[in-house]
């Protein structure tokens, strides 16, 4: 291998780059100088106590919230702004929607469209964004439902499915836009315990196939199994991050140890 080729992985832009992000709600500081780099194909698990800013961080990455200070890039492209000479110019709503379509988001409460069939839930976004025509989108949706083990539920409505099945549909829907990264916000915490495993199995399958994932979860065993990197956040700051064997098994900070002792 030539030196040039060996260096390529460093040259490729980060899948997600969060740089010195600060976010306030009124006088309440929710993110306090967060830096985070997610490489393409990497699985990052974010852990932290309730109220520590995990959901806000994901929402900033997806441009559902705008940071007061700092910036975020996805695949090397700044989110929400464009360079204009040496000034930053805010993007139009339309350009923001186009950026957001390159980021998948899976919510705690599934957020499926209740009036659409499972198939149409998955097929809707590629049609709405003009990426595929209706027939192509439906074909893709069938393939994705097959991938999450729900090929036989295409004509059902969300209310006819279990929570675990609904969350698998939500994952298929996130995949339909072929996003560069998928963000998961506590994807199993609204599920009955016996339904958690089927959703984690689908996420594991994505992780193994090289999809870039950022997952907020309290499932420590799952994090140990699939994470390339675990990030512990508390009080809006990253307290420590590293491979699961370090952060989960030999945490350096008292706050991390304290948190792990409560969730394990
Ligand atoms: P986590 O996901 O780690 O539980 P969040 O990011 O949801 O934490 O919230 C972090 C803090 O920000 C909490 O104190 C929460 O109450 C506050 N917060 C979140 N969203 C809003 C909002 N829209 N307006 C005001 N405060 C908010
Ligand atoms: Mg949250």
From TrEMBL:
Stretches assigned to the ABC transporter domain: 16-260
The principal localisation class reads membrane
Q: Which SUPFAM superfamilies match?
A: P-loop containing nucleoside triphosphate hydrolases
**Membrane topology of this protein:** Peripheral membrane protein
* A Pfam family it matches: ABC_tran
**Annotated compartments:** Cell membrane
Q: What is this protein called?
A: Arginine ABC transporter ATP-binding protein
Species:
Streptomyces graminofaciens
